[in-house]
Each structure stands twice: as structure tokens, then as C-alpha cells.
Write a structure and sequence with these properties.
Elements lengths: L6 H12 L7 H9 L3 H12 L2 H6 L1 H21 L6
Length: 85
């Protein structure tokens, strides 16, 4: 099933996995290395980390990114009165 990830998908996951080792503006690296806007990158990344195929490809990275996303969502929900998730 790993063949279902595109080269772009693998590049996005590789950038996320390597990012803490890079310095500088992430948006510029996204634009330079992947040729897309940061907004598009994060849209695609969000879809990727929800996919079973990405989880199979790099389980530690995908689980870590899911935890980070879920933690941020929980903090946002706690700050918004009347918000129900």
C-alpha cells in the first residue's frame, strides 16, 4: 500500500520530519523545495496525517503530528466560550 503515497506526499512528510533540524522561515523552505504556498502545504499535510497510508509510511511522525494538532485544537476549544467539538 505504500505505493499510494505520491512523491509530493513523501516530500511533505520528509520536510515535517526534518523541520526541527532546519533554521530559517519554514514558509520559504516550503515555497523553495515544494513549489507551493504554505497554506496549500498545511492543507495537504492535514489530509496526509489523517490517512492510514501516511500512518503506515511513517507511524511515529504521523502520530506525533496528530497529537500536536489535537492538543492545539483542544486548547482553542477551551478558549472559545460555547464552542462544542
Amino acid at each position: 500500500m505504500l505505493g499510494d503515497l505520491t512523491e509530493r506526499d513523501r516530500a511533505i512528510l520528509a520536510l515535517e520530519a526534518a523541520w526541527p533540524r532546519h533554521g530559517g522561515a519554514k514558509e520559504e523552505v516550503i515555497r523553495t523545495q515544494l513549489g507551493m504556498s504554505a497554506a496549500r502545504y498545511y492543507q495537504l499535510l492535514s489530509r496526509l496525517i489523517d490517512s492510514d497510508i501516511a500512518l503506515e509510511y511513517d507511524p511515529m511522525l504521523v502520530r506525533r503530528l496528530r497529537r500536536i494538532r489535537d492538543s492545539r485544537a483542544a486548547r482553542r476549544a477551551a478558549r472559545v466560550p460555547g464552542f462544542v467539538s
